[in-house]
Amino acid sequence: MQKNKNYFIKFNNRFLSENPVLRYLNFSLLYLAQGAPEGITFYAIPAWLAMNNKTPMEIASFVAVISIPWSFKILIAPIMDRYTILSMGRKRPWVIIGQLGLIISFLSIGFVQDPLNNLDGLMIAGFFISFFGAFQDVATDGMAVEVIPENEQARANGLMWGSKAIGVSLTLVIGTALINALGFSTAIPFMSVAFAFFILVPLLIRERPGEKLMPWTNGKSSAYAKSIQLGSWKKIFKGLLKVVILPSSIFMAIAICFNGMLNGLIDTLLPIYTIQELGWTNTSYSQIYSITSLISGLFGMFAGGALVDFFGEKKMLTIYLLSTITLLFAIGLTSALWGFNQYVFGFILLSTLLATFISIAFFATAMKLSYKTVAATQFTLYMAISNSGRAYGSGLVGTLSELFSWEHIFLLIAIAPLITIIMIQFINFIKHKNSIKNFSKPILIKP
């Protein structure tokens, strides 16, 4: 009875550093919030554009533009590592700002006049949604690297990425239904009201004991936060340079770039391929993709992290990527079966499931390679490189569709996961950790 009472008190403290259940819940909800705008901008809108006969080049250009802020996250991360309201936590104030910006920018897209014939305006609005989505993503990832212990990272990443996939899925199917029923300019702002709920998460949960809930409430900076806070740009970039020139960091950067390119190619290709090549409607595509994302998210939450925990990041990445190559060759060599919707559904389901599992394993790998004093910057550098690859892959779809048949495009895409497999074989976690220990000062204060 006393044990349960102590647990209840501990849970009610609402400190991320003190309670694993609270950590899992906090980051799952924040990643669910990240999935919502992505479901609209990266999936629902491209499907809507394809349904309204926009060319593959126009759709690919839209996706490429909204991908740009995700590539520039590396410019935001050092600011977050350098400045903060330390008495409220190292990253929590930035998460709150990101959530506010996301709500406001999502509302603004509804003010784009005649979006089908004003793609420039649509791109600008989408750019700002992506900017604040990326902004919140940097803060959330930096917080996760700092407060999640290494033995929880794989499991946490499974829950986080699974929650994001569920957010994408629900937003895609609901967003598409609302766009078709209410019209674009009414549906998108209407959905932004739901985002207001998620800002309660960073508002009510603190990183460490003793910190302020808000700037005007009582509290102070934690000793641990002070110990890892770098007070100058020189120290931040010096620490970052030391860790990014390590061999495992370099191979990780190359691997995650090509994996990002793979994601960009497939995500941009699917609505164009299914709607304009196979004759699906944007509603049918959205429903299918939502179902597959939901299934993938649930599997990711309950199995993705566990598999990485049990077998290791490198082994699981190799298996997932080899399976992706096999899947791409299968769909590329069996065009005679494309007329069967169940067959294409199976391809979308398996590719989405593999993409989710790959992302979970890559996130866990990135956290494992991160140096805590520059955690937000280093982790974000990996993600920025990934998103640069994604933006390039998205933009490449238009060019490939003009030069090659769909059969050949699927086969060519398989080059990206092949290069990724080769690169991850050179990552050495033990050697990397030992190198960090040699140049980092020991932190004796409990995280």
Automatic annotation (TrEMBL):
Question: In which compartments does the protein localize?
Answer: Membrane
According to the record, the segments passing through the membrane are 21-45, 57-80, 92-113, 119-138, 159-181, 187-205, 243-266, 286-307, 319-338, 344-367, 379-397, 409-430
Going by the UniProt record, its keywords in alphabetical order are: Membrane, Transmembrane, Transmembrane helix
- Membrane protein topology class: Multi-pass membrane protein
Q: What is its main location?
A: membrane
- Which segments of the protein form a coiled coil according to its record? none
User: Does Ion transport count among this protein's keywords?
Assistant: no
Q: Record keywords: Membrane included? A: yes
Please report a single Pfam family linked to this protein. Answer: MFS_1
Q: Which PROSITE patterns match?
A: MFS
The record places domain Major facilitator superfamily (MFS) profile at 248-447
Q: This chain belongs to which protein, by name? A: Muropeptide MFS transporter AmpG
Species per Swiss-Prot/TrEMBL record: Algibacter agarivorans
